Amino acid sequence: MCRHFQRRLPLRAVSLNLGAGPSWKRLETPGPGQQGLQAAARSAKSALGAVSQRIQESCHSGTKWLVETQVTAKRR
Description:
Elements: H1 25-28, H2 32-60
């Protein structure tokens, strides 16, 4: 490593601006950015649920699927 990356800065005191007790306000009302995240999570869950339901229906329908793959062997 280069010498200039090994220099250390002196530590200084850090003040935490915490209130007297825990605040539940953030947990009760999500911010505008989190509402979009929650909506995306809901739509992803519903999409995965729909795919899972289709797979289960195809398994119960009795239809047999034949999958063919081509394998080429390589000699060393």
